[in-house]
Amino acid sequence: MSDATTPAGLQWETVIGLEVHCQLATTTKLFCGCPTRFGLAPNAATCPVCLGHPGTLPALNAAAVRLAVRVGLALGCELQTVSVFARKSYFYADLPKGYQITQYERPICLGGAVPVDLGDLTREFPLTRIHMEEDAGKLIHGERGTEIDLNRAGTPLIEIVSEPTLRSGDEAAAYLKELRAIVMALGASDGHLEEGSFRCDANVSVRRPGAALGTKVELKNLNSFGFVKRAIEFEVGRQTAALEAGGSIVQETRLWDEAAGRTRAMRGKEDAHDYRYFPDPDLLPLILPSEIVESERAALPELPGQRRARYRDALGLGRYDAEVLTADEETSRYYDAVLATGADPKTAANWVNTELKGRLDGRPLSEAPVTAEALGQLLAALASGRISGKLAKDGFARMCAGASVASALAAVGEQVSDVSAIDAAVSAALDATPSEVAAFHGGKTKVVGFFVGQVMKAMKGRANPELVNSRLLVLLQARRQPQ
Amino acid sequence: MTGNDLPTARIARAIAVAERHADLNAFLSLDAAGATAAAQALTRRLERGDRVGPLVGVPIAVKDNLVVEGMKTTAGSRILSDFQSKFTATAVRRLIAAGAVVVGKTNLDEFGMGSSTERSAFGPTLNPWNPRYVPGGSSGGSAAAVAAGIVPIALGSDTGGSIRQPAAYCGVVGLKPTWGRVSRYGLIAYASSLDTVGPIARTVRDAARALAAMAGDDPHDTTASREPAPDFTTTLDDGVAGLRVGVLDGWLDDDVTPGVRSAVRGTANQLASAGADVRSVSLPDVSAALAAYYVIAPAEASSNLARYDGVRFGHRTSVPVTSLAELYSRSRGEGFGPEVIRRILLGTFALSAGYYDAYYGRAQAVRAELTRAFLAALMDVDVLLGPTTPGPAPLLGELQDPVTMALLDKFTISASLAGIPAIHVPTGLERGLPVGVQLMGRPFAEATLLKVARTVEIHSGFERSAS
User: Fold this and answer.
1) ipTM score here?
2) Using CB atoms within 10 A as the burial measure, which of A22, A163, A386, B279 is most buried?
3) Is the bond leading into B85 cis (omega within 30 degrees of zero)?
4) Closest CA–CA distance from residue B103 to any residue of chain A (Å)
5) What mean pLDDT value characterizes chain B?
């Protein structure tokens, strides 16, 4: 739904800009040595610096700068040789210093774009900027009142700000999915939505096509890509209805209420903070060392979009398989490792997407019961004809239960491709069921499947299925009574 | 080392003198037990023949806006009246590593905002030369502790003159290093881009020894310079022959007492006869510097002091509150004194949307222009010579009006804005109170500055005996 059509038939155009807060995958915080690990006891990962104690000063974490540079390079941004950290002032109980250290007038990256697959075409959604900043802490409202956990305070973030060129909730969701896959592929972020490593706010407005931008509303509490899509769609409906009715849009921040399926006003422009930004005198301007930029440029990995293109174009996979295999970094790494053993790309894709994913039943690839190398050896046995697909599945089941490839292959045995042995079993099956033979000759070709089953059963599943098929047809023809 | 020079004896004497001068209110806290234990440990090391630092057994006092683990740090404010830091400021840690012993924490104008130490939440400090006069500020407690002979070296902080001005009123040496020369880690921030940590000392040599121990980069303060820190004491007695000294005659025109004027002129003559090339230099009017300072410093202060909100540490109101906003306003309203509140309001306004360019932006432009002018002047001369203060110390209670108080800093603020090193050297008395001169130098050229200061000290013949 890229446009909302009004009852009068006039069109409204949706304008969306997204601000993504992405936690950088450093081991320590942006300005102190505290760990960034998730799930520690409240306030266990704090020190005088991130608690904002008197006399403390920030010391910039070079690893965070490196990751921000990596994301900037991957998204084709103009890296800024000089960027400046500023203070954004407001009072809140989760903000220890009374200001957040962030980049304001001079961010580390300008421009760039996120390439997004939209069905048949790939579109580049341009970026305004990427800047570095520290996260705030977390308030926990409970029976004992409100408690403060400052473990997250000072965690390094980048904020990736798009230009307002997205036109629908679907585009927004696709953009976010792609951006998340990219930062994960880069190792720049773990991308965990539920732990808040990848968060999004959306600025939404509507206008008549070609008209000036309408008044925008900022949407928050968008905790999943589905929420983003639904919140935007609700908001577009709300705004067009208001404008259709002759009303106007109030510039405000609205929260998405998933249970109610609607947005609610949170704070209006009159309550908007004056953040009183000014350059942080405790941090000298950040001068990017060219060694960092060049070493990051040289080490840039393949991005999900490039990988999808490789899977489709070089390996000949279908769009669906390419999509599923690149959905996360672990899956594509696993698939590439299976390919590295010499496996056929399509066979390997089927096995990873069907057999392996079926076994995992939603669990991550890190819990795969069979290594990529072992799966590759199994597929090699299949490709050489040593085992059939059926035996390969039996072997895979044994490997999932802990067996090595060698013992699994030994247990399932080799498939029988000896024509005389198969002919004997086929003849026995045909002899035992003359009525089905007659049915076949009467035109019911479907009974072939029945014969295959009988032969396989008799040969304990080891018969080469292709040979069984072809010998069956030959021997059935041979028994046709001359008219 | 003989009995009287052993750390235990020196520390015991310092504490006894401090207690005798308790009426000066120079100290907010004395740590007799901790200092005695540290002295005993140092004495044992000396007796064992262990290696010790160059400041072994030297009693020092620390301005109470530098945190020291195990002692209270109040910044002279009610809002931190019970605050104990979990770490020790880098400058203090390095002095302790050099063998110095902290005997106590000294009084100051709240968060360094003041020029008389009367704006402390814990009462004023008195001038050891005459208790009816202020010791200056904001490092008034440290200057008084040195002037009263309690300690030979005390740490101060200087944002717009807070080391040099009290040193002038108390007749001691006060050195503001180049911004970035000494780590600010552990200094409770007032205005970060101006704040410096430096020594107040009985002699130029002691100031040089303290600076040598403190200077150098610090992983905790990335604005601390990697510029090498030489041993500032080795070149102290090299003399001034051939050095070019620029006298700021323009600063002597008006509103300067005869004693201060003759201190500067007399010093210029002495330096000339000691072989220096002395000439007159003119620099921009100080009123623009003062105006820029009173925008930049409050702006940074309004941000630096936002963390005192009653949530994690410091004073929290005991009045039941119904909202977070009320917790903030009550805790801060009760915890901060009027001068601090005035500067927070001023700074908040200066940074507000719509006013930023007219105030903060413009003040930074003035600062940049002034810095250019000073650095240009310092291309032609090695040091600048001028007054530190317009006159000797004012009476207690005389400085009611904030503008009058601000004018006391008009000669010290320029070096703060330019980030260059500056030192006060006492040269004589006027109406029984000390006066002296200010020397300013190139960035990181403290060695030259100290060398000239040492020459001034020798030639002035000033007697340092207030008590």
Assistant:
1) 0.96
2) A22
3) no
4) 20
5) 95
